[in-house]
Amino acid sequence: MKFLVVDDSATMRRIVVNSLQRIGFTDTVEAGDGQEALARFDASISFVITDWNMPNMSGTDFTRALRARPDGANVPVLMVTARSVKEDILTAMEAGVNNYIVKPFTPQVLKEKIDALLPAAAA
Amino acid sequence: MSNLTLDDAATLLLQLDAGDTEDLSRLREALTTLVFENTVPMTAQPHVARAARLLGTIIDGSAEDASGVFTDVSRTLEAAVSAADSASFAATPKRDESAKKRGAAPVASQPVAAVAEPIVAAVAEPVAAPVAEPDSAIIAEPAVDTTAAQNDELIEELPSDTDLDLLGDFLTESNECLVGAEAALLELEANPAHEEAVNTVFRAFHTVKGTSAFLGLSRVAAFAHEAESLLSRVRDKEIAYTQACAELSLASADMLKALLGEVKDAAAGSGRIAIPAGYDVLLQALISYDPAAPTAQAVAAVRAHAAPDIAPRTVAAEIVDAADAAAAPRSTTPSAAAEQSGRRRTDSTSDATIRVRTDRLDRLIDMVGELVIAQSMISGDDELDRTKQHELVRKVTHAGKIVRELQDLSMSMRMVELRPTFQKLTRVVRDTAVKAGKEVAFTVLGDDVEIDRQLADLLGDPLVHMVRNAVDHGVEGPAEREANGKPRTGSVRLQAYHASGNVVVELVDDGRGLHREKIVAKAIEKGLIETDKGMSDSEVFNLIFAPGFSTAEKITDISGRGVGMDVVRRNLEAIRGRIDISSAPGKGTTFAIRLPLTLAVTDGMLVRVGQERFVVPTTHIHMSFRPEPSMLSTVVGRGEVVLLRGELMPIARLHTLFDVPDAVQSPLEGLLMIVGEAERRTALLVDELLGQQQVVAKTLGDALGKVPGISGGAILGDGRVGLILDVTETVALAQGHGPTHVRHGAERARHVYAA
């Protein structure tokens, strides 16, 4: 099961990747912004974790573009964010984000978020 | 209502009164819960989210056409239902029962979180989240005057489980972000509408906040959070990017840098993060920032008081001073202590480099310098020339080769880029321009040029001074510039490049230029010269470097470019730099600083004058020759001159300047050595050239102080002492602009060395 981790901060990517490893997901691909993520995305990716605010292309714009692609319409997208304002989250979800996780999070919380979206991915 | 399914919601919507806010709110909560809990199929989720968001705009009144939006909500929900239906035909994901037809699954089997429960808390999980509650972390601490309370406020423990490797990455990245943010903030100054710059700054604070929260650095996260909030208000056009806002943002970037510096020290040492002075005050200023409120005025006051300095601590400290005294001025002692303990260890957070104390490095380089000389004493020993032991000669040669390589290597260890030195100046330009009401575009070129670290350090202060002067006095105000047909925005350019074994740093402005007449008048008034007759422009301009040249009175219409320029030159000469000025009235001024690559070793030409030997730094020598009688003459007002390829140059006799007996008197019997730049070219009379040599320069020591014309002494290959000539000063002395006590000084110097 391959994860695409999108964040402009290399440190954050490392934190996410480390967290994923600790909950048993070792196959990861990284991208530094939305554009790079679109280029990196392919059918082998089964889960996307993306930051929101990034240069060049934000997490919401990336998700919207991803959803417009045949191979990206059904992949679960989890957004990492520091915002927890409901309106903001709804905007992200309108763009196609499936759920969000607030920084800072523990690997356990990350696991719960992923688990909640995985059955949907099987659809 | 909390157990609604998507279909329930769609049905309910039809029965709702679009004007009943309470009903709308409940529906919205239910829809929000549906999306947040992922209880609708993925394909339906965006629609549900949209419906919830649209309902929100009706509820809070921000929707312009409420009934139109309401229709939109209905359509969106229909789309959601049909998306959910097709998804349920395609497959039956575990958690999508609620989206199925009501009959297929009992509604109660999929309880949705109670609407009354705060949704964010329910979804976000009760993770320790210092970011979300900066207030409790900060404001809860009373400013009680007990030592214990103060310590709590000043120190934060680094979490014990910190991953140092990750922390190292975090620090590197954050510092990069903040450097970028500072550049963007300065860009914003020039162009407040630059949205990408706002975003860059926002992201920098955002990144620092997000990552520091993971690392448990709650103070850092809390501060970054507030700084981010300020910028997000600017981004959302809620507040304008005013001067006060700019000051606050810059101060915040500084504070974060200082905080991160403390974190780094804590990681290397005590594990205790000293919170820099001014933290709370600045944090409060961020929290309560209101463009029209006293906070803005306080920050403005800070700016008015603050010298355009760049040390983060200083800025922070000034903010404390200017702001509420009740905020208890904080001592910086703990942070200083933490810093010391941190520096004592090497940097454990980065693996490719280690930190070495510069004084150790300096000593190493000095020792290598001495080694080079000791080696040259051995290889230059007469015995070695006479010996039949070729094996020994070979070994000495081999050792010499290694020593030279060692020397090159030790030099390179201290080479650093000029970038950090130059970067600080961007801020100086900006601060000075703001204060002086100037509009200045600052350009930096060649900041990748490498130079001895010691030189880079020592170059900093003079450059700050010069740049400040260029902005304050060189560049005219926007109105004056326009009146003179120049663009409103003045230009100040700083550029560095290599030129014949030296590094040249040029500061070029397009301001009003220097006024020869005013400088001459001032210099005469101050008794520095009697007349400017025979003085070139360059010589006149160089008078501004003379000690005692006025600092207070008007030279360039505002307040005088002479401010501390003698100090600038002294500092530069201490690092064997040479500074030259060229200027055209109304067009601007160029200061060119020529520096050696390193201070550790001087490439010198050893010359003999009588029984004395002088070392002339080769950077200053253009050529040496024995003149023909036809080349020599005497010119009224200039004295003895030599004519070389059409150029007349005064002859300076070193033996006269330094009172050396038994030296060659006639240029025809000795050698003339051309030194100095452009109009200041001078032919120095010496007895003979003894050869080129690298020497390790030593100061003459406190007993002698500064001897005019001499920059230091050096132990020569044969173990004797030679004096290193300060060419700039010597030329000035020869032309009669220098002080008259030179002979005394030189004599004293000789005697001390002879002793």
Q: How many separate domains make up the residues of chain B? A: 5
Rounded Rg of chain B? 36 Å
Which percent bin holds the helix content of chain B? 40-55%
Please identify, by name, the CATH architecture of the largest domain in chain B. Up-down Bundle
N/C terminus separation of chain B: 103 Å
The oligomeric state of the chains shown is heterodimer
Q: How many DSSP H or I helices of chain A?
A: 5
CATH topology of chain A: Rossmann fold
Question: Quick one: biggest sheet of chain A?
Answer: 5 strands, parallel
Q: What is the CATH topology assignment of the largest domain in chain B?
A: Four Helix Bundle (Hemerythrin (Met), subunit A)
Largest interface: A-B, 44 and 50 residues
User: Based on the structure given, which CATH architecture of chain A is correct?
Assistant: 3-Layer(aba) Sandwich
Helix content of chain A: 40-55%
- Name the CATH class of chain A: Alpha Beta
The CATH homologous superfamily of chain A is named Response regulator
Question: Would you give an account of this structure?
Answer:
The complex is a heterodimer of chains A (123) and B (755). By secondary structure, chain A is an alpha/beta fold. Helix content of chain A is 44%, strand content 21%. Chain A contains 5 helices and 5 strands. In chain A, helix 2 (34-40) runs parallel beside helix 3. Chain B is α+β, with helices and mostly antiparallel strands. Chain B has 5 domains: 6-124, no CATH class; 134-344, Up-down Bundle (Four Helix Bundle (Hemerythrin (Met), subunit A)), CATH 1.20.120; 358-413; 416-596, Heat Shock Protein 90, CATH 3.30.565; 602-754, OB fold (Dihydrolipoamide Acetyltransferase, E2P) (Beta Barrel), CATH 2.40.50.180. Chain B contains 27 helices and 20 strands. In chain B, strands 12-16-17-15-14-13 form a 6-stranded mixed sheet. In chain B, strands 4-6-7-9-8 form a 5-stranded mixed sheet. In chain B, strands 18-10-11-20-19 form a 5-stranded mixed sheet. In chain B, a hairpin with a 3-residue loop joins strand 13 and strand 14. The longest helix of chain B has 27 residues, at 164-190. The N and C termini of chain B lie far apart (103 Å). Chains A and B meet through helix 1, helix 4, strand 5 and helix 5 of A and helix 2, helix 3, helix 5, helix 8 and helix 9 of B.
